[in-house]
C-alpha cells in the first residue's frame, strides 16, 4: 500500500478515542470493561483504510467490532471513515497481529476476518503471511468454540497456501470458492477497499470460511 508519511500520525492515532491504547489491559474484559455490552466480538486483521468496518458496524450493530492495523497513516484513514459513521460498536488497535494472544483471552473472539492480507510471495517471507501456521495457532487460542476465520483475497497463491496451512493446523473448511462473485456466498458480502479495486477490474475473489476443530 503506497502512502505518504505523516509526521504527527502516531500522536493522532494514540489520542483518537476509538483507538484502544494498552489493549493488554482489556484481555478477558473486552465486553465488560470496554464495550460494556455482551455481544459477539469480531476482528478484522490488517484493516487498511477501513472501508469494510465502517460499513459492517452499521449493518451489524449487535456485534462488537475491532480493527487491527500496524501502519499509523493507514489507520488514521480508517479512523476518519469510522467517525463518519458514529458507530459506537467499533474500536481499533494500532498493533501487529502477532501480539493477538497477548490482547485477547482464550475463547474471547467469535470471528476473525482476513481481508486481502499481504501475500508475501517470496519464500523467505512465508512466516509473515497472516495464514502462516504460527498465526493460525494464535487464532485458535483466542477463538471461541465454533469460532470462525473468514478470508478473502485476489491472490491465488495466498489462497492455496492458506488452504494448506488451515488443513495442517486442524481447521475444518466450511465454505470455499475461487469466485465469490459467482457463488452462493456473495449474499450479505461487504466489499473492502482492495476488493472494490479488484472487482472493478473483473478479477475473481477467492473466499473461504474455516473453523478450528
Ligand atoms: C493489502 S492491505 C488490505 C487492506 C484491507 N483489509 C482491504 O481489504 O482493503 C493489508 C493491510 O494489512 C496490514 N497488515 C499486514 N500485516 C499486518 C500485521 N502483521 N499486523 C497488523 N497489520 C498488518 C497492512 O499494513 C495493510 O494495511
From TrEMBL:
<feature type="binding site">
    <location>
        <begin position="192"/>
        <end position="195"/>
    </location>
    <ligand>
        <name>substrate</name>
    </ligand>
</feature>
<keyword id="KW-0819">tRNA processing</keyword>
<comment type="function">
    <text>Catalyzes the formation of N(7)-methylguanine at position 46 (m7G46) in tRNA.</text>
</comment>
<dbReference type="GO" id="GO:0043527">
    <property type="term" value="C:tRNA methyltransferase complex"/>
</dbReference>
<feature type="binding site">
    <location>
        <position position="118"/>
    </location>
    <ligand>
        <name>S-adenosyl-L-methionine</name>
    </ligand>
</feature>
<feature type="binding site">
    <location>
        <position position="122"/>
    </location>
    <ligand>
        <name>substrate</name>
    </ligand>
</feature>
<comment type="pathway">
    <text>tRNA modification; N(7)-methylguanine-tRNA biosynthesis.</text>
</comment>
<keyword id="KW-0949">S-adenosyl-L-methionine</keyword>
<keyword id="KW-0489">Methyltransferase</keyword>
<dbReference type="Pfam" id="PF02390">
    <property type="entry name" value="Methyltransf_4"/>
</dbReference>
<dbReference type="InterPro" id="IPR055361">
    <property type="entry name" value="tRNA_methyltr_TrmB_bact"/>
</dbReference>
<comment type="similarity">
    <text>Belongs to the class I-like SAM-binding methyltransferase superfamily. TrmB family.</text>
</comment>
<feature type="binding site">
    <location>
        <position position="44"/>
    </location>
    <ligand>
        <name>S-adenosyl-L-methionine</name>
    </ligand>
</feature>
<feature type="binding site">
    <location>
        <position position="154"/>
    </location>
    <ligand>
        <name>substrate</name>
    </ligand>
</feature>
<keyword id="KW-0808">Transferase</keyword>
<protein>
    <recommendedName>
        <fullName>tRNA (guanine-N(7)-)-methyltransferase</fullName>
        <ecNumber>2.1.1.33</ecNumber>
    </recommendedName>
</protein>
<feature type="binding site">
    <location>
        <position position="96"/>
    </location>
    <ligand>
        <name>S-adenosyl-L-methionine</name>
    </ligand>
</feature>
<dbReference type="GO" id="GO:0008176">
    <property type="term" value="F:tRNA (guanine(46)-N7)-methyltransferase activity"/>
</dbReference>
<dbReference type="InterPro" id="IPR003358">
    <property type="entry name" value="tRNA_(Gua-N-7)_MeTrfase_Trmb"/>
</dbReference>
<feature type="binding site">
    <location>
        <position position="69"/>
    </location>
    <ligand>
        <name>S-adenosyl-L-methionine</name>
    </ligand>
</feature>
<dbReference type="InterPro" id="IPR029063">
    <property type="entry name" value="SAM-dependent_MTases_sf"/>
</dbReference>
Amino acid at each position: 500500500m503506497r502512502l505518504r508519511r505523516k509526521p504527527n500520525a502516531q500522536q493522532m492515532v494514540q489520542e483518537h478515542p476509538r483507538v484502544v491504547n494498552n489493549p493488554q489491559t482489556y484481555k478477558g474484559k473486552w465486553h465488560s470493561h470496554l464495550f460494556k455490552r455482551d455481544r459477539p466480538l469480531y476482528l478484522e486483521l490488517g484493516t487498511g483504510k477501513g472501508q469494510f468496518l465502517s460499513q459492517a458496524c452499521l449493518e451489524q450493530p449487535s456485534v462488537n467490532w475491532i480493527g487491527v492495523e500496524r501502519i499509523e497513516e493507514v489507520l488514521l484513514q480508517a479512523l476518519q471513515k469510522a467517525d463518519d459513521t458514529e458507530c459506537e460498536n467499533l474500536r481499533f488497535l494500532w498493533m501487529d497481529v502477532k501480539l493477538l494472544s497477548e490482547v485477547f483471552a482464550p475463547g474471547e473472539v467469535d470471528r476473525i476476518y482476513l481481508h486481502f492480507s499481504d501475500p508475501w510471495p517470496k519464500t523467505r517471507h512465508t512466516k509473515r503471511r497472516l495464514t502462516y501456521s504460527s498465526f493460525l495457532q494464535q487464532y485458535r487460542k483466542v477463538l471461541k468454540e465454533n469460532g470462525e476465520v473468514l478470508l478473502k483475497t485476489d491472490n491465488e497463491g495466498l489462497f492455496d497456501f492458506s488452504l494448506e496451512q488451515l488443513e495442517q493446523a486442524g481447521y475444518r473448511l466450511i465454505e470455499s470458492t475461487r469466485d465469490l462473485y459467482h457463488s452462493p456466498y456473495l449474499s450479505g458480502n461487504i466489499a473492502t477497499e482492495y476488493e472494490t479495486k479488484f472487482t472493478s477490474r473483473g478479477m475473481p475473489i477467492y473466499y473461504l470460511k474455516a473453523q478450528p476443530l
